[in-house]
Amino acid sequence: MQASASEPKPRLLSLDVFRGATVAAMILVNNPGSWSNIYAPLEHAKWNGCTPTDLIFPFFLFIVGISIAYALSGKKSRPEEHSAAIKSITIRSLKLFGLGLILALFPIVYFDKFGEVDVWDQIVMRFSGVRIMGVLQRIGIVFFIAGIIFIKAKPKTIAWTAGSLLVIYYLLMTFVPVPGVGYANLEPETNLGAWIDRLILTTDHLWKQSKTWDPEGLLGTIPAVATGLLGTLCGTWMKKPMDNALKITWLFVFAAFGIAAGLVWDLFFPINKSLWTSSFVLYTAGLGSAFFAVLYWLIDVQGYKRYTTPFVAFGVNAITAFFLSGILVKTLSLIKLKDAAGKLINLQSYFYNTCIVPFFSPLNASLVYAIVWVLCFMALMMYMYKKKIIIKV
């Protein structure tokens, strides 16, 4: 990562707000005070279906696609710069994937176990059981594939590619028999994606909460790339030299089509975030297009910018905010204190139980803790933004 204190280039403010709001929401839902007390909209759907929380990650990948179009359109139009652009895309993708692995590995060594386990043995154990896929890893892969396709393909080809990926994924998931099961299915542990993850990644490197399947698994990355490609089409459209009203109108047309197509496909290929189903891609891309259209109209066209600064601050350092949030959560869990009963608990739980739980109902206490967490990071991001510190990944 590189820190820059120079004057940033002009940016599309609504896109930064969209990205910042998405990352702030991601931090909010990832850090409740108690996982046993969460308001329903702040939880993922148990399996099929879509809650507001399920929109956060696809929105971010959709934004990645829009950003690709804005950042790489100039190089796309100059074939002599394609090699340099692909090199830059590759390096950034590897950085994102690497940050995801660091987040999964952290802490590599548990200092309170020095006397019990050799340090080198601890490191070996951490690597032998690290989750290979994850949020940042999927972002890196989607950025890499969508970026190269954007550089090399025309918009019509990109649209056909995205549609083909969704159809191919649908056919694989619903028609290919799963080895050891004997039939195609969409259940958590027995679908084709889960089988492929166990075969290639092995159970040691899957999502620890399940150990048998991974919500950011390998096969599900295929439709996730389609999410990014749809974002590039949105960004390409927004860069066209035309009247803003016409741009926004067609964004809403695209939104309506995506939502409707997703709901129709949901009838026989259910909307499912964990599987990243094709219906989920269309439905969330449609909602993302509508949300972006509203923000663009309000902020960049009508000029309503008064309350946007906190979200812009999150938006320009989005990956930094997400990464540091994950690192800090794990760091606080390493610091142990004794509570009033003499029980040893981590610093995060101590703060929650002492400063928040006594004053609110269980659901509200959990929510207040998550909001405090977001506000703390908002203060940090605001400071960095005012100092013009943008950490580029």
UniProtKB/TrEMBL annotation:
Coiled coil feature spans? none
Q: What are the protein's UniProt keywords?
A: Membrane, Transmembrane, Transmembrane helix
Give TM regions.
55-73, 94-111, 131-151, 158-178, 217-238, 250-268, 280-299, 311-329
**In its keyword annotation, does this UniProt entry include Transferase?**
no
| Top-level lineage group | Bacteria
Membrane as a keyword of this entry, yes or no, is yes
This one is known as DUF5009 domain-containing protein
- Recorded source organism is Solitalea canadensis (strain ATCC 29591 / DSM 3403 / JCM 21819 / LMG 8368 / NBRC 15130 / NCIMB 12057 / USAM 9D)
